[in-house]
Specification:
Length: 362
């Protein structure tokens, strides 16, 4: 297995961490922090009864992060309750995505996972009604620039982020999982049709297990942002491990990816979870997924890019090509989300026009 450094080694097998030197721990703590994985590592070490064996100095960092993670989980649960109440009157069920879904469904990857906003998916025909209901309950739209508003409402898969006036919490309201201008167009009605209730809650739902994995894959490999890429890759690894015992999960995964036009993101997800975390994937699933891989030249290129960008954005994990790899994948993410002329217009707007307008308004 390829050596990806301290953090990947620690995530693969935390059992050896009590024997690490303080020098190694100093680097690992920095990598954990920049990757958003400190609280997650605290949760894993606690679950393995290893926390008390960690040297005192890094243990203090881990304990503080664990307390922050526990507080964050409680905050997410309270905020979801507020969202449910706000949308109760318009009769729209709350379909949670990503981090909030992991927390409320109590999935293994939720332990210590910290994230900045809550994402929900609603039918596109209900989007205006949902926005109005949230505004009446104290949320207001952000990104007030006229171009940004048009960008979100005409081309994107979500409303502009909405922030609560009192609590300063942020919600992203999606009607799809990829922009309307993206090359891949998974059918949101199919995702909503397969949604599942969260045990113990009424009118609170998540995507089906295979759809949850596919959404995580497309979010990581088609978004272009890699600040917390290793955390997101670990999410996929843990989702695969958790759902692997569900009847029919492996048989459904590749078939569902084809149905939703997400076979290529699934290929990348399986390839790199196996490479980084040695995820256990049945041979027949890999064979089905490999049918959708890029050509040999492109795959070699993507390996060189992803193997750098998925690592923490920290000097200890970088080489001379890491920054270029991240930039190339950022450009690729935008290229996949917008057609060329729209992308060019968007980049010109963001680079030259919007900054001038901001200066004038100030």
């Amino acid at each position: 297995m390829k050596d990806f450094g301290l953090l990947v080694t620690a995530l693969r097998d935390p059992s050896g961490l009590p024997d690490w030197t303080l020098r190694d721990w100093d680097v690992l703590i920095r990598q954990l922090k920049i990757s958003g994985l400190m609280a997650s590592m605290h949760a894993r070490l606690s679950a393995l009864n290893l926390l008390e064996r960690i040297p005192e100095q890094p243990r203090r960092h881990l304990i503080w992060s664990g307390q922050l993670g526990q507080s964050h989980t409680r905050s997410v649960q309270r905020e979801v309750a507020h969202i449910r109440q706000a949308l109760k009157q318009c009769g729209v069920p709350v379909v949670l995505l990503k981090g909030a879904a992991y927390v409320l469904a109590d999935l293994p990857c939720a332990a210590g996972r910290i994230f900045s906003d809550i994402d929900i998916l609603v039918p596109k025909e209900k989007i205006n009604e949902v926005e109005s209901a949230l505004m009446l309950s104290g949320w207001h739209t952000t990104h007030h620039d006229q171009y940004d508003q048009r960008y979100y409402r005409q081309w994107m898969h979500e409303l502009p982020p909405m922030m609560h006036l009192g609590r300063a919490t942020v919600i992203d309201v999606h009607h799809a999982i990829l922009p309307l201008t993206a090359r891949l167009q998974p059918d949101s009605t199919k995702l909503l049709k397969a949604k599942l209730a969260v045990p113990g809650y009424t009118s609170l739902l998540t995507l089906a297990p295979v759809d949850m994995v596919l959404h995580s894959a497309v979010h990581l490999f088609y978004d272009g942002e890699f600040d917390h890429a290793l955390r997101d890759l670990q999410d996929i690894h843990m989702l695969l491990g958790h759902f692997s015992s569900s009847p029919g999960f492996w048989n459904q995964l590749a078939v569902r990816a084809q149905e939703l036009d997400l076979a290529r993101p699934l290929f990348y997800a399986l390839r790199y979870t196996r490479l980084f975390f040695n995820s256990t994937v049945p041979d027949h699933v890999m064979l089905e997924s490999d049918a959708c891989k890029p050509n040999r030249f492109m795959l070699t290129l993507m390996d060189n890019l992803f193997e750098r960008a998925l690592l923490p954005n920290h000097v200890s994990c970088q080489d001379r090509y890491s920054a270029a790899a991240r930039f190339a994948l950022y450009v690729r993410g935008n290229w996949l989300r917008m057609p060329p002329m729209l992308l060019l217009r968007h980049l010109i707007q963001k680079a030259f026009i919007s900054p001038k307008q901001q200066v004038v308004s100030e």
